Amino acid sequence: MSGATGTTGATGAGRRPLSDGTGSMGEFWTQAGTVKGPLPKAETDAVVERSQAVVADPLPLGLAGFASATFTISSVFAGWFAMSAVVVAIPVALIFGGIGQFLAGMWAFRRGNLLAATAFASFGAFNTSWAILEWLTLAKILPDSSAGGSPAYVAGIFVLTFALIAFYLGIAALGDNLTVAAILLILAFTYLCDGIGVMIGGHNFLLAIGGYAGMLTSLIAFYLSGAIVINSALKREFLPIWKVGRPLIG
């Protein structure tokens, strides 16, 4: 290990010397994010892989919570039910799609999976925030955004910010898992339609399009969640999950 702290070890494959030129430590990328320190990259990657081997994969839980909440809400936006019925989705959005998904994100951090951790924590927080917003509106503590005006614009911007998050996470997932990338990129389109639709007010064609897109991304998430659990139980890839390069899935 002493060689890892010298100039040769710090500037080896995948390492970047510090700006002071001492070469005492390096910084490089792993699936867990950037790592700075004296360990060689191969050893650090082994540590990340070891953490994935001893901590259960949080992806099935996070995907299930995301899919359940998103499908329920999207079914209303798609026009299957009256818009006023969306308040019934508050419990599933708050508990399963919100808190449950957020906890999956925290376990993904522990497992060293930065992409999954950021996605689950972000969209878990989104669902929790949405549920609280709907509850406060129902209790008439906040103005109803469906009536249009400034509240609708603010609510629309809130949704659009998550469209941006889903988009860049989807781009990042293209190098890891095509199924995850599809979920995130379709979700970005979903939130784009929903955000603009909320700004317009009422039930409009953009909300309907966003509703069906949300149901599609939910179905893909349900599939991936089930595939990971089934493959894990069978100890082989019985159902394809379309991994690319270094896999996102365990």
Description:
Helices cover 64% and strands 4% of the residues. With 250 residues, the protein is mainly α. The chain folds into 2 domains: 2-52, no CATH class; 56-234. It has a two-stranded antiparallel sheet. Strand 1 (26-30) and strand 2 (33-37) form a beta hairpin. The longest helix is centred in the last third of the chain and has 30 residues, at 205-234. The radius of gyration is 21 Å and the shape is elongated. The model is unreliable at 1-24 and 246-250 (pLDDT under 50).
User: Structural class of the secondary structure composition?
Assistant: mainly alpha
Count of structural domains: 2
Strand order across the largest sheet: 1-2
Rounded to an integer, what's the Rg over CA atoms? 21 Å
What is the number of beta strands?
A: 2
Q: State mean pLDDT (0 to 100 scale).
A: 85
Largest sheet: 2 strands, antiparallel
- Helical content band: 55-70%
In percent, how much strand structure appears in the residues? under 5%
Order of helices and strands: HEEHHHHHHH
Treating each run of at least 4 consecutive H or I residues as one helix, how many helices? 8
